[in-house]
Amino acid sequence: MTVLTIESLTKQFRGLRAIEDVTLTVERDSITSIVGPNGAGKSTLFNMVSGYLKPTSGRIEFDGHDITGMAPYRICRQGVARAFQISKPFPELSVQENVLVAASFGRAGERDAKATTTRAIDICHLTPLRDRRAGSLSIGNLRRLELARAIAARPILLLADEPCAGLNDAETRELTNVLSKIRDSGVTILLVEHDIKAVRRVSDRVVVLEAGRKIADGSATDVFSDQAVIDAYLGTAPA
Amino acid sequence: MRGFHKPISSRQWGLSALLLVGAVALPFVASPFELRLAQQILLFGGLAVAWNLLGGFTTYWSFGHAAFFGLGAFAAGLLGQQLGPEVPVALRLVLGLLFAMAVTLAAAVAVALPVLRLRGIYFAIAMLAFAQILGEVSKTFDVFQGAIGFTLPILKVPGLAKVQLFYFLFLVFLMVCIGLFVVMRRSRLGVGLTCIGQDEDTAAMLGVPTERYKLTAFVISAVLTAVGGVLYSYSLGFMTADTVFRIDISLNLILYSMVGGIGTVAGPIIGAAIMILLTQVVLGDLLDLHMLVTGAVLVAMVTLAPKGLIGLVRDMRRRREETTVEEGAAS
């Protein structure tokens, strides 16, 4: 079943076409990764799906509703959550309170907020840190807090923006485990990530963008052996 | 909202009850001069708490709350003039309060819609300008009589001196402000506002209706401030633009909050008590030094204890607990 349908989406910034005629679909309970070189338009695409940017043309359909150009908070209410690369916790609140805010104001509703919070904290491996002040967390823990907060809103679709950037190998592995657990708990994930190892490990499907256009779409194995992708993004090992 | 605040402890209830009993008993033992000081602490403490309903939660620091203070006073004054002499004073006061609240509500909504789009220092400056403009308008256009002012009738209650009567009115005002602050802090609105204060964009992303919450806090804060303006003017018995549209009122509310601790309920009141006692009793004979000392205190607080006295005490307590834990772990 398709959760998100993006149809010939285009975004023009003055003279620059950041996204040009991109069409893609995201299947329910999958992890779909979007990769591509810097400036390929990954963030622009994310910003349009979450409502921070209005597309120049094209259509975004989520869960059967047209959400093209809708305000961010309304898209959030429809069931799209976003985890940012630069995590912005509420620094003076504890880990638990941070997640509780998301649970209470999100789709979970106040009644189930406590249970939702406990579950989200557990899925993201934050249970031992629940009473720590968010401002005192390391970057790896902050990223997982960002994810916990996002899923506490009980989204249907989670947009994860480079959750592995700047993490070491051990932290990356823990994070990809968390991502898989989130998917298995019934949340569809759209991931933007530069860490190809991590992408290979978690993705059910990979979409490659270059200069605003989609150049490949398929399983990780197929996509990463595609010559166009190697030329545009991966490169070849030096001889 | 559940899960964010510990329930109010019996110790806190006990302490509050004790303070209240003391506050009620005070007018029967204190001298008129002491009582006038206490009046100011109650009124301006209450106003500082009202200021914190917006500034303390969201960090939207209004530098122009005198606008609402004056607006309320003028609304009540102008209405009083329209009422015939047969209307008793107490009824005049009540009608004046209601009218002031209604006018301020409308004005606050109208101002908030553009001004709350600004953040940080831009919001502060816009509010400062708003207060200055209202003051000038009231003086310039004769219908508002800002330059001449109004004389307000004297409110009398048998058995109470005027200074006692207004002491009690200010006490009720302070309690209403405290009550609203405590209820709000513990509500969904308060939690949402606190999140706005820490990171507005994130709050919006998590589904907090930021615009509506900010507007609500702004309006409640403004209306309470207007009530303070009406009560203050009745306690003086007269008012002009210069007695209510005072920039020092706007700034003092921030100063009191900073000295005591912004975003706390006791902080602004403690700050008001300290600063009022300091400037009027300790420096009572050195009037020229008020501003100098006020400035020095402000600079000292901002550099040494940016979270105010309450924040200072909390930090010290937290540090002591942490060292005890570490020592416990070491042994």
UniProtKB/TrEMBL annotation, chain A:
Domain ABC transporter, by residue range, is 4-236
Q: Which GO terms describe its cellular component?
A: plasma membrane
Pfam families named in the record: ABC_tran, BCA_ABC_TP_C
Biological process GO terms, please?
A: D-alanine transmembrane transport; L-alanine transport; L-isoleucine import across plasma membrane; L-valine import across plasma membrane
The highest taxon in the source lineage is Bacteria
Q: Which UniProt keywords apply?
A: ATP-binding, Nucleotide-binding, Transport
GO terms, molecular function: ATP binding; ATP hydrolysis activity; L-isoleucine transmembrane transporter activity; L-phenylalanine transmembrane transporter activity; L-valine transmembrane transporter activity
UniProt-listed PROSITE patterns: ABC_TRANSPORTER_2
Q: What InterPro entries has UniProt attached to this entry?
A: AAA+_ATPase, ABC_AA/LPS_Transport, ABC_transporter-like_ATP-bd, BCA_ABC_TP_C, P-loop_NTPase
Q: Which PANTHER family match?
A: AMINO ACID ABC TRANSPORTER ATP-BINDING PROTEIN, CONSERVED COMPONENT OF ABC TRANSPORTER FOR NATURAL AMINO ACIDS-RELATED
Q: What is this protein called?
A: ABC transporter ATP-binding protein
Q: Give the species.
A: Marivibrio halodurans
TrEMBL record, chain B:
* Pfam families in the cross-refs: BPD_transp_2
Source species, domain of life: Bacteria
Task: List, alphabetically, the InterPro entries matched.
Answer: ABC_transp_permease, LivM-like
Predominant location of this chain?
membrane
GO MF terms on file?
branched-chain amino acid transmembrane transporter activity
Supply one GO CC term from the record: plasma membrane
Where in the cell does this protein reside?
Cell membrane
Q: Which residues cross the membrane?
A: 12-30, 37-54, 60-79, 91-115, 165-184, 215-241, 253-283, 289-310
Give a yes or no for keyword Transmembrane helix in this entry. yes
The membrane topology term of the UniProt record is: Multi-pass membrane protein
Q: Which keywords accompany this UniProt record?
A: Cell membrane, Membrane, Transmembrane, Transmembrane helix
Q: What is this protein called?
A: Branched-chain amino acid ABC transporter permease
Organism encoding this protein: Marivibrio halodurans
